[in-house]
Amino acid sequence: MRTTQRKAQEVAERDQKLVDVALDMVCRDGFHNLTLGKLADEAGYSKGTVYNHFTCREDLLIELSAESARRQLRYFQAIADLPWDGVRSVYGMALAYLRHAEVAPVLFECSITARTDAVCKVASEQRLKRRDLVEAQMSQVVGYAVERSVAEGSFESADVEAAVAVDALRAYILGYAAMHLLSRRFLWAGEEDRDTRLKVMTSMVSGLGWARLAADDVARLQREVAGIVDAIAAQYTSDGHPK
Hints:
Helix content: over 70%
Largest sheet: none
Low-confidence stretches: 238-243
Order of helices and strands: HHHHHHHHHHH
Shape: elongated
Distance between the termini: 25 Å
Radius of gyration: 19 Å
Number of helices: 11
């Protein structure tokens, strides 16, 4: 391996280590207690080394949101590879989004906070572009499932186009997960309310124009999707980074 390639690999590995340590710290102490100085101490690097990777704490938050997106992309790709029709793939990806919030709540919460203008205005363009690239890949995978559902005749809406409907569905899932999955204080947050969640999500999906699936079918999809997400999540440590 050439010297430049080796150095680039070392930088990438150190970058990932810093992200992993930062995630540990956020899981343990909360993001409000995370500073680049504390990260340097915890990771065993100098402050200068850490600042060479992250210009500010907001850069870390953006990278954690990119880590969340990379996880979701793996889930969506796994579902896209299944021999499901378009509408079931749409349901499956929606269910995977919800399951991600359950199995990786810290990453999910970071992804929400990292969308705010206050964070994006401070973070570096490099980190924003890295995250945007992963999210664009996710959009392509979801978009393919939506296109299939339209081609197969399982999406019909006189009010909105499929692209608008999928954006509305994403907004619903994001808001629902933020309210009901990140805190047990909210209605439907408990495991015992899973059937209610599925009924609400099915009503949303069908209300936006996709074919309504039977309750048993949706429940089966949920079990299969949970198995996919959990199997991939098991490849990470309990704090969410790769083993």
